[in-house]
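On to my pick:
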Amino acid sequence: MGRCILFCGRPVEHADLLGLTRQPDDFIIGADAGYLNAQRLGFPPDLILGDFDSAPMPEPGPFLEVYPSQKDQTDCILGVDAGLERGCTRFIILGGMGGRLDHTIANIQTLGYLIDHGARGELRDRDCWASVIRNETITLPKGAWLGEDAYLSLFAVGGNCRVTETGVEYPLTNHLLTGFYPLGVSNHILDTAKITARGGTLLVMLCRGA
């Protein structure tokens, strides 16, 4: 099983899917109130889990895992672990940005957790797409997901990172990005952006302009 689509508790609408459709081998998880998003948008969950402090408890069944409210893990991390246990290597997380800033930061940390566990994750909604890379190169075509006017921003997370960035308005060549100076913000993709991160973990974001 390759791809896990994980619905979290923030409201999710069709526009937030950015064209996402369910594939036959997808594993769908609803984390806490995320199961309501999944059901409403036509992604019936294969697994529902959480402490259900923000949604009604679903009917008991083999697809339901209930956790105590006093726990160390976020509901999103519980969903990620469940997907990893089932062999998923790519995760699309919906309903994980906006609202409380601490929840958004926690879900960005979750992207790094996935990298540590040999998988790749992304957060997405109608206004923003985010993923992290480490010791690799990715390409992003102009207009990917959010349209040609989207801003491309890079942030070193989890330590300093050597970054090369081409195909953008403001390129970088083996530049040291640090975790405490925002140099890579509000770039534009000219054609196809190629981003290489070495020696650290890089948060890559596309955000729609105001």
Q: What stands out?
A: Helices lie at 34-40, 75-85, 101-116. The first strand starts at residue 3 and ends at 7. DSSP finds three helices and twelve strands in the chain.
